[in-house]
């Protein structure tokens, strides 16, 4: 009948509309989203009392008072966003309780004017995560207790990848319309730790494809991304299969860089060709030449979102360098590798604090306002000029 034909066409149109809507954002949509954000600046955040993602969010060790206090340090710096790592095992053990603790974190962060970039999976450090009491830090070793998510047992078995579907869809569905959530970082450094098992990068790519597929089915209003972190991005012909997939599927372009200013500029210039907003959600390793003084002014100038690694020095011990796994350290290094504050809120380097507050317009009082781009009057940020 005519009505059946019309109904069939309507269903076809709706199906096609759904397919279009669930695809990667067009560049124009990504630019429109980014234009509504203030310059994004913050850190990769874990409270000083947690050694890893599990200890941060397990109910027995979920330390909201410390989270509140340390996000207060971030607010005082003028930071407005934090990148926070989650873990599949937390959801598997107790989906409802895990989401409730995520909600509590978001409430505290939002009170401090801080948005959140959630990270769902991670290929870095210990490939054998376990729930329960987490190990004590090994003295003087960088990230001695950090764990991969989901871990080697699932990642190396392609048939087990489907176990992650409920985790991804549940979180994206629950927080889809939550304005406190900035974006979804699906997979941190896929393929890192290549020595864990043969062809790890290939397995990580297969997992990443599934993650994007599940995320697009939910189609949240926040961007969906996976950051490039290694390789040559200057020309499409030089991209690894992982990098190619990440750059062709992320709504906005996100990268990691722990090099000096020239290295940061080279990465930025290489990624301009994709015509999308650019965010760096890992940088700052002082001895490697990646410093706040060296790169943060450039990042502000180009409106590159800036998330350094390390905030309050604590159980992750990321004030020690990466080579602390192979080189013996017996005391705190004179130049911290990562991290900004000690647990009491005192900074590693007061000159860094001055620079960051200058760049985030939180430094000056009215007595010093004449020659500055912005002034802080009793906590009210007044931008005088750009």
Structure, explained:
- With 386 residues, the protein is α/β, with parallel strands linked by helices.
- The protein contains 13 helices and ten strands.
- Strand 9 (374-377) and strand 10 (380-383) form a beta hairpin.
- Helix 4 runs parallel beside helix 6 (95-111) and helix 12 (292-301) packs parallel to helix 13.
- The longest helix has 20 residues, at 2-21.
- The protein starts with a helix and ends with a strand.
Quickly describe the structure.
This protein has helices at residues 2-21, 27-35, 53-57, 64-77, 88-93, 95-111, 152-155, 165-174, 200-218, 241-249, 261-271, 292-301, 350-359; strands at residues 41-44, 81-85, 115-122, 181-188, 224-225, 253-256, 278-283, 305-309, 374-377, 380-383. With 386 residues, it is of the alpha/beta class.
């Amino acid at each position: 009948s005519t009505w059946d034909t019309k109904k069939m066409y309507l269903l076809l149109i709706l199906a096609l509309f759904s397919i279009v809507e669930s695809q990667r954002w067009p560049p124009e949509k990504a630019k429109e989203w980014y234009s509504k954000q203030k310059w994004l600046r913050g850190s990769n955040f874990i409270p000083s009392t947690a050694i890893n993602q599990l200890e941060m969010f397990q109910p027995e060790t979920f330390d909201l008072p410390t989270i509140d206090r340390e996000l207060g340090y971030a607010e005082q710096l003028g930071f407005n966003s934090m990148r926070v790592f989650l873990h599949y095992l937390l959801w598997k053990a107790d989906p409802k309780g895990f989401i409730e603790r995520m909600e509590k974190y978001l409430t505290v962060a939002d009170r401090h004017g801080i948005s959140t970039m959630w990270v769902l999976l991670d290929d870095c450090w210990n490939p054998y995560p376990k729930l329960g009491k987490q190990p004590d830090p090994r003295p003087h070793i960088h990230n001695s207790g950090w764990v991969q998510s989901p871990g080697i047992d699932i990642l190396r078995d392609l048939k087990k990848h489907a176990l992650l579907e409920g985790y991804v869809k549940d979180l994206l569905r629950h927080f889809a319309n939550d304005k406190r959530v900035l974006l979804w970082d699906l997979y941190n450094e896929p393929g890192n730790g290549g020595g864990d098992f043969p062809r790890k990068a290939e397995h990580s790519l297969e997992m990443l494809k599934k993650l994007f597929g599940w995320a697009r089915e939910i189609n949240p209003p926040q961007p969906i991304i996976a950051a490039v972190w290694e390789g040559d991005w200057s020309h499409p012909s030089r991209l690894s299969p992982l990098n190619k997939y990440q750059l062709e599927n992320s709504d906005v372009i996100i990268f990691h860089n722990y090099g000096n200013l020239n290295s940061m500029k080279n990465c930025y210039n290489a990624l301009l060709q994709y015509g999308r907003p650019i965010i760096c959600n890992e940088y700052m390793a002082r001895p490697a030449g990646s410093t706040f003084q060296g790169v943060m002014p450039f990042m502000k100038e180009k409106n590159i979102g800036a998330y350094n690694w390390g905030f309050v020095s604590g159980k992750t011990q990321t004030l020690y360098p990466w080579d602390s796994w192979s080189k013996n350290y017996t005391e705190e290094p004179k130049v911290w590798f990562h991290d900004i504050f000690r647990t009491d809120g005192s900074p590693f380097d007061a000159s860094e604090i001055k620079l960051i507050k200058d760049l985030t317009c939180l430094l000056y009082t009215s007595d010093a306002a004449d020659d500055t781009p912005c002034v802080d009057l009793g906590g009210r940020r007044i931008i005088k000029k750009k």
